[in-house]
Design goal:
With 267 residues, this protein is of the alpha+beta class. The chain has one domain: Beta Barrel (Hypothetical Protein Pfu-838710-001). The protein contains six helices and ten strands. The protein has a nine-stranded mixed beta barrel with strand order 1-5-6-4-3-2-8-9-10. The two termini are 36 Å apart.
Length: 267
Amino acid sequence: MARAKGGTNRPVMAREYKLILNQDRFIDRSAGTAALLARIVEQATALGAKVETQREEETRRTRYLDTPTQALRRAGFTLRLRYEHADARHKVTLKHRARDRYVAAAKNLSATAKPYTGVFEEDVLPGFVSIFSQAGSVRLSELPALDSIAEATALFPELGTLDFEKAGRLEVVNGFEPTEVFCRLCKIKAGRKGKIRVGLSFWYGAEECGRPLIAECAFDIRARDGDDFRLAHVRAANGLFDALQGLPGWIRTEATTKTAFAYTSGA
């Protein structure tokens, strides 16, 4: 079994800033992406940072599994399946979110399959609201059966500690299976080392064009060791986050995350 170290004193490995965008700006995705990139370059330059443009797109298929009563979400968990077309693999991710850092850190999201990756990070939402999340992921060429809580527990044993009906079935949340276009937009260099990586995500229905169902801009900074973040990166990321929220007509400040959209608006 691939193991994730437990304990409530788990170090924060990354901080990810998330903004839901006005999808009307991306009816023409290429033009909207270019316009947003220009504004990011402008803001980053004002902060004394340098920008390395990427604009690399990849396509994914995303869906969330839960019980008919959404027992996983009510317990703070999400189970996401993502098919990544670039490498023809299924990425299965169990995530636990909590406002309390130590509650989020206490979960053991080990998996019984490999290759396994785990991350504990701070998500920053508009208004500088922090939510801590721990995620365990496996990438598989063949997707295992995940039709019940029992089958999900066989992959992620932590689910066995919860007060669920183990025979309870899992279903695609709201029957919602969007096509996701992910764009590696740019890297921002602030200070001597390390970069802020900026990405855009667009969810579509049957067609990968026109007005997206939801659009997100997310960027992160990573710790050097444990909780040790470079102050220059923190200041630059905070400055960019504030600046983007101030762009007229670009940000939906009332929205939160793509996951919330899938659960509440994706039907």
